[in-house]
Amino acid sequence: MWHASILTLFPEMFPGPLGLSLAGKALRDKIWRCDARDIRAHATDRHRSVDDTPCGGGAGMVMRPDVVDAAMDAALTEGVPRPALFLTPRGRLLDQALVRELSAGPGVVLLCGRFEGVDQRVIEARGLREVSIGDYVLSGGEVAALALLDACVRLLPGVMGAAESAEEESHGASALLEYPHYTRPVEWQGRSVPPVLLSGHHAEVARWRRAEAEKITRERRPDLWARHTGTETSARAIAG
Ligand code: ADE
Predict the structure, then answer these.
(1) Omega into 17 within 30° of 0, i.e. cis?
(2) How many domains does the chain have?
(3) CATH number of the domain bearing residue 216
(4) Cβ contact 63:117 at 8 Å
(5) How confident is the model over 197-212, as pLDDT tens digits?
(6) Which band of pLDDT confidence, cut at 50, 70 and 90, is reported for residue 231?
(7) Domain extent for 47
(8) 34 C-alpha vs ligand 1 centroid, how far in Å?
(9) Closest approach atom of ligand 1 to CA 141
(10) Mean pLDDT of all residues in the chain?
(11) Is 138 annotated as a binding residue?
């Protein structure tokens, strides 16, 4: 069973939305386990404090290394060793390659920060991989952890239908953005479904979708487009 442990000051935020839909069913099917742990349970002083003022001054509070370390210890004693990640806007950007890597392993231990941050020494001592879900600032790592877990869980064997997982595989390092989708009614508010999609010509449909995917990727994500054209070029070079 893929095992997610989440270290947080708000354990009641988990599984949250992941208790519903695809991830919720997988949870009930015991494909994965969601183990939310209260960092405050590892506080040692009589105020049960988990944070303190920043050395050097400044606004906000910093999570104490000793308390975080004890919480990590408790989480990691359970089951097999798992990679430990710290959700922070300072981290490397989460992408599908990292999601694939994590979902292929035994699970994750996720540290969710609140306040201004976490003492740097426990990040270093524990070798935590710092991961961000995007260039914006959330009020804590919990929502980022939910996003990461959602992305990992849908890739676990038995969670998605065979069709979608096969499609997922086709998105290699050179993924394009998806082509637009349409369904009935064929006419809606004066807008028509593109006729090619009603033609029944599978090859034509595939060609149209491919062209649309390329167009939208070029327009919206020149970074992905550059990577895509790069891998296409090297694939051709290898093929000779
Ligand atoms: N915590 C606060 N903002 C975050 C972000 N963008 N990604 C991951 N963790 C965060």
Answers:
(1) no
(2) 2
(3) 1.10.1270.20
(4) yes
(5) 999 999 999 999 999 9
(6) confident
(7) 2-153
(8) 20
(9) 1
(10) 94
(11) yes
